[in-house]
Amino acid sequence: MTQQDLQSRKAGHIALVGAGPGARDLLTLRALERIQCADVLLYDRLVDPEIMELASPRAERIYVGKEVGRCAWPQGRIDRLIVAKARLGLRVVRLKSGDPSIFGRACEEIAAARASGIEVEIVPGITAASAAAASICHPLTERGETDTFAVTTGTCRPGDANPDRARLAHPGTSMAFYMAVERAAVVRDDLIGAGAPAECPVEIVASVSTPQERHVSTTLGALAETIAAEGIRNPAILFVRYPKSLARAIRGISAVA
């Protein structure tokens, strides 16, 4: 062990590690190394148990699961815990499903670590949108059809306004909606109200890269009804595409009419 390693060990270290969408063979090599070397792992309900098996038997495992509407572990409590463990000189891994930088509350944990003078890093992971697109073998962008890809959310912090979805309702845009199952009707109405056609194709991928994965195809106009009829539940990604060819076809129909 080098002198730098000894100093880092003494001061403690926090790694915000992307666990990917589910399957452990989608972990990066860096994520695997951090997990195997961790003294403490904090994980949530979306982290696959097989990933936890990669950690040292001596590592402390702490479940800090959250669900929409129910939260025994508020963010402030998690922040305090990872800092307290790192102050003991431990290597702390905060395992997050997907990628820590995408709707992963990484900003709060980074701020807490820096405020305490503790070294912190982000280890990127495969986000659910990438894994879902790969699973259904449908690229996130398509030459000549979609040249803009947007990652957005259906559920904001209580009291915050909805994202400005009018910016997304343009030909050539492919959209990945996270945490949007229960807000599907609002997403639909916002996009159609901003000019996106009801005929826009939608792919719904639930529980991606797990044995429970499901894939349902529909249209923007029928999105909410399809989710209800199929019993889709979170976690799920909603892919909404507004292809340029669809815009051209609609313009052609309008010109004829």
TrEMBL record:
The keyword Ubl conjugation does not apply. It is an enzyme of class 2 (transferase). It holds the Pfam family TP_methylase. SUPFAM superfamilies: Tetrapyrrole methylase (SSF53790). Pathway: Porphyrin-containing compound metabolism; siroheme biosynthesis; precorrin-2 from uroporphyrinogen III: step 1/1. Keywords: Methyltransferase, Porphyrin biosynthesis, S-adenosyl-L-methionine, Transferase. GO terms for molecular function: uroporphyrin-III C-methyltransferase activity. This is uroporphyrinogen-III C-methyltransferase. The keyword Methyltransferase applies. The lineage of its organism: Bacteria, Pseudomonadati, Pseudomonadota, Alphaproteobacteria, Rhodobacterales. It comes from Salipiger thiooxidans. Belongs to the precorrin methyltransferase family. Its EC number is 2.1.1.107. One of its GO terms (biological process) is methylation. Residues 14-223 form the Tetrapyrrole methylase domain. It comes from the Bacteria.
